[in-house]
Specification:
The chain is mainly alpha-helical. It has helices spanning about 40-45, 50-70, 90-95, 100-105, 110, 120-140, 145-165, 175-190, 190-215, 220-235, 250-275, and strands at about 10, 15-20. Strands 1-2 form a two-stranded antiparallel sheet. It is globular and about 60 Å long.
Length: about 280
């Protein structure tokens, strides 16, 4: 992807042709429609369905990395529901969060822990959930807004569980509950008979998953609740794709979420290597 600082581009707000170096769009008046040369690359990065695929691959790759950090640790358990669990040292080195890393000042773990998982079953279940829930969220909000919602759910969920005293925690389930919160928000924002139906459908699913979580051991229900609230509030603040196309602001927010997450992993692995 390369910056385009001259010539014609499509305005990220109205979709009409304008100049990349224009101070404002000649059609809708948007300031800096070229986004300093990044309008085209951002539009390509957040094309439809791209976000769900990227998140899926990121979770798989980082799970494999945590296994490789301590291969022997992954073979120490014989529990059928904990197949190939990365060791505690490995997930902490990769950026797991919790009250313990938080007390040490590792703020970035609120982002990095979203993409880490405790065992193969945990990973597979969350990937399925991401793909099932991520697709309708992308359809109704757009890919860039979906990235913001997913990140907000994960960050708020982990912030809540860290405050509640969970020593070490990880996984995408808080962010997944954020996607559920976004669909509940969609039902409210959409309104009418269809909106009411969506509200009941997704609200009931969220309730069932909450109850299911309380009947299982080693589940961070505080992160689930916080993630739901984070995704719900983020979705309320963002527009629906059917009412307003994604803007440059949406794409910049999503790029910031990705950029901060990458910085977080650089800090996590950098500190583990230097330490």
């Amino acid at each position: 992807m390369f910056r385009k600082t001259s010539g014609s581009i499509l305005c990220p707000s109205c979709g009409r042709l304008t100049n990349a170096d224009a101070r404002e769009c000649l059609v809708c008046g948007r300031r800096n429609p070229g986004l300093w040369g990044f309008a085209g690359p951002l539009r390509t990065l957040f094309r439809r369905r791209h976000v769900v695929d990227v998140v899926t691959v990121a979770c798989i790759v980082l799970y494999v990395i945590t296994l490789l950090l301590d291969p022997a640790g992954a073979l120490r358990t014989h529990d059928v529901f904990e197949i190939l669990p990365p060791s505690q040292d490995a997930v902490l080195a990769a950026g797991a969060t919790g009250a313990m890393p938080w007390r040490a000042g590792a703020w970035w773990t609120l982002l990095t822990a979203i993409y880490l998982h405790g065992n193969l079953v945990h990973l597979v279940f969350n990937i399925i959930s991401i793909r099932v829930l991520g697709s309708p969220v992308e359809e109704h909000y757009g890919p860039a807004r979906t990235m913001v919602i997913f990140t907000a759910g994960g960050v708020v969920g982990f912030a809540a569980s860290n405050f509640a005293g969970y020593e070490i925690t990880l996984g995408a389930s808080g962010a997944i509950f954020g996607l559920l919160g976004a669909m509940v928000a969609y039902g409210q924002k959409r309104g009418g008979t269809f909106g009411a139906m969506m509200l009941r459908q997704w609200g009931l699913l969220a309730l069932l998953l909450f109850v299911f979580g309380f009947r299982m051991s080693n589940v961070n229900n505080v992160a689930h609740a916080g993630g739901f609230v984070g995704g719900y509030l983020a979705a309320l603040a963002l527009a629906l794709a059917e009412r307003k196309a994604e803007t440059g602001r949406d794409q910049l927010l999503a790029a910031a979420c990705i950029g901060l997450t990458l910085i977080g992993f650089a800090l996590a692995f950098g500190i583990s290597v230097l330490g």
